[in-house]
Amino acid sequence: MLNWYQTEKRLTISGNKEEQNMLNGKKVLFSGMQATGNLTLGNYLGALKNWVTLSDEYECFYSVVDMHSITVRQDPATLRKRARALYTLYIAAGLDPEKNCIYYQSHVSGHAELMWILNCFTYMGELNRMTQFKDKAAKHADNINAGLFTYPVLMAADILLYQTDVVPVGIDQMQHLEITRDIAERFNNIYGDVFTIPEAFVGKVGAKIMSLQDPEKKMSKSDENPNASIYLMDDPDTIVRKVKRAVTDSEGVILYRDEQPGVKNLLNIYCACSGKTPEDAVKEFGGRGYGDLKTAVAEEVVSVLKPLQGRVAQLEKEKSYLDSMIKNNAEKAQYFANKTLRKVQKKVGFPERPR
Ligand code: TYM
């Protein structure tokens, strides 16, 4: 198999001023996911599903962000296994690794190198305001390490390294996107137009899937109650059982409104899986009970997750294919990361590397 840089369709960064950010005539998309815990339906509907939809339109970099994962203590063998499973999942979800650059963050040294530089352009006060830091520090009070604190700077490095235009994420990552933009603008104000200022892409209905047990809380892979989340690898019976147990309310009407967070969440899941709008869903369930809604939600979720699980099982057998994609794409990512990194290093005054 040819390496990416040996193929004819070698990617180029356009020299044209207006198109400076374009790779291969397309704008750049970056996103990533942590290989920690069991991925939930929230991760799929809030992020992965949109990645697939956008992948033709953009030149895409999708990272398994294993460096972020160690801000919380991990068992090494489990982390390695989960990172591989996540890599497989990206492809199983429909991302072609020959068209999209899918790689492990830890394989591209540019992330850590740029992060160090960006650390020097980020204020303690800004990082102190990050709600995810506050939540995680409260949860891991015995391990409030510097990595947990500077986590958003690594995220900024991930994004800015590829001159990213768009970052598809769930709503919970918006604050990190904002600090990324602030850091980039600060750097650009000092050194000229070095970084592209990225925009977030947030889907209409799946951007914040809530816990099935407490619809005021986000569905999260670290939730201790397994009934609160639908995991991507849950079998159909488990999915049906979890949806049936989902907390609703005593109103007895199916409307899409904040006063009914449990019902609204079920409608969001239903719409994100089926592609219907909340208005259509409300019409469809008008006059019907919560039992009907739950049955329909479970059916839609199973119809999305079952084929995904089948593709994961199939891909897991294709070890050498996955290995070659992992290697090729890490080289490709490093190549583009270095382009930005060398520029940044020069701007801040590091001596040129002897050739
Ligand atoms: P992570 O691994 O927590 O989540 C991955 C993606 O899933 C989205 N998500 C949700 N969307 C809707 N409803 C939910 N309940 C839900 N839970 C999670 C997240 O918004 C995210 O898009 N820091 C990031 C990973 C990261 C990253 C990046 C993302 C590292 N570098 C650069 C974008 C760009 C994180 O921990 O996501």
Structural overview:
By secondary structure, this protein is mainly alpha-helical. The chain is 51% helix and 6% strand. It has 13 helices and five strands. It has a three-stranded parallel sheet. It has a two-stranded parallel ribbon with strand order 4-5. α8 links the parallel β4 and β5. The two termini are 29 Å apart. Residues 30-34, 42-43, 46-47, 65, 68, 155, 158-159, 167, 169-170, 172-173, 206-209, 218-219 line the site of tryptophanyl-5'AMP.
Structural class: mainly alpha
Q: Could you spell the SSE succession in H and E letters?
A: EHEHHEHHHHEHEHHHHH
Strand order of the largest sheet: 1-2-3
**Cofactors, ions and other ligands in the entry:** tryptophanyl-5'AMP
Radius of gyration: 21 Å
> What percentage of residues falls in helices of 4 or more residues?
40-55%
Distance between the termini: 29 Å
Précis, in short:
The protein is mostly helical and 355 residues long.
